[in-house]
Specification:
This protein is α/β, with parallel strands linked by helices and 256 residues long. The protein is built from seven helices and twelve strands. A six-stranded parallel β-sheet has the order 3-2-1-4-5-12, sandwiched between helices. A six-stranded parallel β-sheet has the order 6-11-10-7-8-9. Helix 2 crosses helix 3. The mean pLDDT is 96. The protein binds NADP nicotinamide-adenine-dinucleotide phosphate. The site of NADP nicotinamide-adenine-dinucleotide phosphate (NAP) has 23 residues, from strand 2, helix 2 and helix 3. NADP nicotinamide-adenine-dinucleotide phosphate binds next to strand 2, helix 2 and helix 3.
Length: 256
């Protein structure tokens, strides 16, 4: 019998770690799927496919085609970014329609510590409204596809950081920094203090790779507008790569 294929919906460090771990399990072959948002993605180990499926129906058809082609997908792990709500919803629906087991690997959100001055926001739009009463100089790390709500805020100046050039509209007064994490605390403090930033706006992405900006904000005594995660579909979920690996191994006889 050929290796059992596991579809990892990826684009995160956890998805890459899971793909690497699954290539080490006997009889298992991970297939990672990336959205294709960035021109130069960090590629996971093993097979990779890139681009949208065409919604829940498209993903269900892709899974059915794999089955019909003699290379079925035995399980799906949704290890996408916590704010990638559309693909998570599609994955849950497609897995249900095709009766393929699904697991969500969801890293925990960040937790406020003593010294933090966090103001949680239900959405990016709410964060833009909340800025009205806050400092003029803003460090904005919400991702390049979520800048439109800030575009009309002419009283503020924005330091915008994203991996690739954001599409318009952008705020009229801004400086753009193109960079991909991980970032260290010292460099975040230097960046924020150097630009005389007075408030940080970011998403509750969680994870260690981009947490340094929150430590920097604490050390500089700056408030943070932290955007809450969108709702998640009701599928079994785990918090760690190790737990996801155990779940896959338990599904596949002889994997361990
Ligand atoms: N910081 C990060 O590393 C990071 C990474 C990803 C996302 N995000 C954040 O998450 C939010 C939404 O991002 P998003 O547009 O990627 O997610 P999304 O809104 O859930 O996805 C939009 C569409 O992209 C396709 N897609 C997404 N992930 C895919 C995958 N792994 N494989 C194949 N197709 C995929 C799907 O297209 P079809 O419907 O055609 O299948 C999906 O409907 C943004 O706010 C972004 O800032 C951050």
């Amino acid at each position: 019998m050929g290796a059992v294929r596991v579809l990892i919906l990826g684009g995160t460090a956890e998805a890459r770690a899971l793909a690497a771990a699954l290539t080490g399990l006997p009889g298992v072959r991970p297939v990672s799927s990336l959205a294709g948002r960035v021109a130069d993605p960090l590629l996971p180990a093993g097979e990779v496919r890139i681009g949208g499926f065409g919604g829940a129906e498209g993903l269900a058809e892709w899974l059915a085609a794999a089955q019909a082609g003699g290379e079925p997908i035995a399980a799906v792990v949704d290890a996408t970014h916590p704010f990638a709500a559309t693909i998570s919803r599609s994955a849950a629906q497609a897995a249900s329609a095709t009766r393929i087991p699904i697991l969500a690997l969801r890293r925990p959100g960040w937790t406020e510590r003593p010294g933090d001055d966090w103001h949680r926001q239900p959405s990016t739009a709410a964060a833009a409204v909340a800025l009205a009463g806050m400092a003029e100089r803003v460090f904005l790390t919400t991702g390049r596809s979520d800048l439109a709500p800030f575009a009309g805020l002419d009283r503020h100046w924005f330091l915008i950081r994203s991996i690739e050039q954001p599409p318009p509209p952008l705020p009229s007064r801004h400086r753009l920094v193109l960079a991909r994490g991980p970032f260290g605390v010292a460099e975040e403090i230097e960046l924020m203090a150097g630009h005389r930033v007075g408030v940080l706006v970011t998403k509750d992405s969680g994870g260690p790779l981009t947490a340094a900006k929150l430590v920097a904000a604490r050390e500089l005594g700056l408030p943070v507008l932290l955007i809450d995660r969108p709702p998640v579909p009701d599928v079994p979920s785990v918090l760690t790569v190790e737990a996801a690996l155990d779940w896959v191994a338990a599904l596949i006889p002889g994997a361990r």
